[in-house]
Specification:
Layout: E1 13-17, H1 44-57, E2 61-65, H2 75-84, E3 90-92, H3 101-109, E4 114-118, H4 124-131, H5 136-149, E5 153-159, H6 168-175, E6 180-186, H7 194-197, H8 203-219, E7 223-227, H9 231-240, H10 243-246, H11 253-259, H12 261-269, E8 278-281, E9 287-288, H13 305-311, H14 313-318, H15 326-330, H16 341-348, H17 369-374
Helix pairs in contact: 1-2, 11-12
Bound molecules: iron/sulfur cluster.
Iron/sulfur cluster binds at residues 231, 234, 327-328, 331, 333-334, 337-339, 355, 358, 360, 362.
Length: 376
């Protein structure tokens, strides 16, 4: 395995799973939330230290998630401290008995500006069929109204699977009247409880869904972001590439940036980065390249998160496209995509294997090896 230094985003997105506890037991929970908090979860003091480290990293975005973060009685203090350190965390909440209008208002007073809700269907039947918990559809919409009433911006998370793949357009219609800032559409990685419960979609179905997302992006005011679907960038490029770029054998971001900086940035933001621009922190402080990849690159109690992100063996190896195997290793888009390493790991056991949800047939696969190396 190569461990050459490859460029990375200096300000990654950080997702921090504050706790693994949640009173719900959704069957599609990839993070495997459970009833009680782990006694080894970061203490309040350690959480403050984690915030200091995250602030030093100057992330372009911080998301606090669970489990249900409301299980932590120090959540308000943590948000307050994050704000004092110049961070503006988004908070993912679960529609549990802990979520009340008073709680939402108090968090807003603590400095929270953005709340995120999981919505996996446009009707109670579809949403609850995906999550396997009754009553959560109505509770989720009520929570969204409370958050909106408290002046918070909203984001919606949707996990795509076989049960709701035909429902994406209807979900977009449902959330349109809310003050939605962004819709995060997660593509499935079979880990945690979702390993048994989520109906996987195929690579061809994924390609079709990318087309649906394109249509929704074109007409909605809210942003749409694909999660664990870096090949959405490849899909969008293939659809939009003009004649000039069609002649480029091995595209680099510079090709697009010089051509149209705005659309290149928009395209970058349309899919969440892998190890070159994303960091996940577990409730115990383990630092990983994805919440869906159970491999720790270190623990922030012992090594700063910035050092782990910049130079740990795991992050460095994962962001080096030369390490990719199979179709991803031969792909002309591997420098801007690279596929979901979490999904490759979950479905094949090989961290660097082909992303099983990519339908592309790389043109570079037809080139002799020496031509590939020379980049000609
Ligand atoms: S083959 Fe791999 S690198 Fe190429 S577009 Fe598909 S997922 Fe991305």
């Amino acid at each position: 395995m190569r461990c050459a230094l490859t460029p990375y985003h200096p300000h990654p997105i950080v997702t921090w799973q504050l706790t693994g506890a949640c009173e719900l037991h959704c069957r599609n929970c990839a993070l495997g939330a459970r009833e009680h908090r782990d006694p080894n979860e970061l203490t309040t003091y350690e959480a403050y230290q984690a915030i200091d480290q995250i602030a030093d990293l100057a992330p372009r975005e911080l998301v606090i998630t669970g489990g249900d973060p409301l299980e932590r009685t120090d959540l308000g203090q943590i948000i307050d401290y994050a704000r004092r350190r110049g961070l503006d965390p988004g908070l993912v909440v679960s529609p549990t008995s802990r979520l009340t209008f008073d709680v939402v208002t108090r968090l807003q007073h603590n400095g929270l500006t953005r709340m995120m809700f999981a919505l996996d269907g446009s009707t109670p039947e579809i949403h609850q069929d995906v999550r396997g918990v009754m009553g959560t559809f109505v509770e989720t919409l009520r929570g969204m109204r409370w958050a909106e009433g408290a002046g918070l911006a909203l984001e919606v998370n949707t996990l795509v699977c076989g049960r709701n793949a035909a429902d994406l357009t209807a979900i977009a219609d449902l959330i349109r009247p809310f003050r939605i800032r962004r819709w995060n559409v997660h593509f499935p990685v079979p880990v945690g409880r979702s390993k048994r419960a989520v109906e996987m979609i195929t690579a061809d179905e994924t390609e079709r869904l990318f087309g649906v997302l394109d249509e929704i992006r074109a007409r909605e005011r809210f942003a749409v972001r694909a999660v664990e679907a870096l090949h959405y960038r490849r899909y969008s490029l293939q659809r939009n590439l003009d004649a000039r770029l069609r002649d480029v054998a091995r595209p680099q971001w510079s090709d697009f940036v010089s051509h149209d900086p705005e659309s290149a940035q928009e395209l970058l933001g349309a899919a969440v980065d892998g190890a070159s621009g994303y960091v996940f922190v577990s409730p115990l402080g383990d630092v990983r390249a994805s919440e869906f990849l159970p491999l720790s690159a270190g623990n922030l109690c012992y090594r700063p998160i910035g050092a782990i992100y910049r130079s740990s063996d795991l992050f460095v190896a994962m962001r080096d496209p030369q390490n990719l195997n199979g179709k991803c290793g031969r792909c002309e888009f591997r420098h801007i995509c690279g596929g979901s390493r979490a999904r490759a790991w979950a479905m094949t056991g090989d961290l660097f294997a082909t992303d099983p949800l990519c339908a592309d047939q790389p043109a570079a696969a037809t080139l002799p090896d020496r031509q590939m190396e020379a980049g000609t």
